[in-house]
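This follows on from our talk about sequence and fold. Please put the record directly below this note.
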Amino acid sequence: MVDRAFSDESLARWYDLLNPWRPCDDFYLGLLMSAESVLDVGCGTGTLLHRAREAGHTGRLCGLDPAEAMLGRARGRTDIEWILGDLASAGPRGQFDLVVMTGHAFQVFVEDDVVRASLAAIHGALVDGGRFAFETRNPLVRAWEAWTPDNAVEVTDAEGTVVRVRHEVEKPVSGDVVRFTESFTSPGWERPRVSRTALRFLDARSLSRFLAGAGLGIEEQYGDWERGPLNDTSPEIITIARKGRG
C-alpha cells in the first residue's frame, strides 16, 4: 500500500519490515533485468533497484521519490541514480527503456488532470517503444473493506521494538476514491503517528482510456502476479503499456 507517512524519518526505517519482498517484486525484477535503462517512480527505500544490481544488472538504474527519508535509506548504494522529487524531476525526455511504478503507487493520482499529467510525463521519459509497467487494485474486489482496525499489523525489529499499524476507511465510500487514515503506534512512543491518504480505484476500462490518451498502448495485462488473466475477481490490474514508435 502506498503510504506518504514514510516521509517521516522515524517511520522510514520501518518501511521494509512492513513491506517485505513479495511475488510482485519478483515480477518487476524480471522486467528490470531485461531493460537497459530503468526509472522506478516512487522507489521508496530502493529495494527493487538494489536487487537488480545484486542480480547483475549493468545498465542505468534510476530511482525517483518525493520523500527524503526514504531516499536516505536508498542511497546506501551509490551505483544507482537517486532523484528527490516527482515526475517533473525526471530530467530530459526519452531516456528510459522501462518505467515502473510498484506498490500501487499509481493509485495516489486521484484527480483526472493529475493522472493525465503523470502519464504524459511517463510517456516523455520513455524512449520510443519503451514500456511502462504498474499495477492498481481491481475495484470490483473492494480491497478497502479489509482495511479495518481489526486487521492491524505488527512488526518487530532486530532490537525487539514493536510497531503496530492500523487502518480505518472514511465512510461512506462513494465513486472510485477511497480515503483512509493509517495509525502507527509503539509502546515507546509518546503518541501515535497518523497519516491520511486518498487512493483512486480505476477500473480497467477507465485505465485503458487514460493510457490511450497519453499515447501508451496496452501490451499485456494480468489479474495476478502469476500472470493469470484479468477478470472480475482478480485482485490486481497489472498493466504493461508501450509507447508508440515515432
Q: What stands out?
A: The mean pLDDT is 93. The CA atoms of residues 110 and 121 lie 16 Å apart. The first helix runs from residue 9 to 12. The radius of gyration is 18 Å.
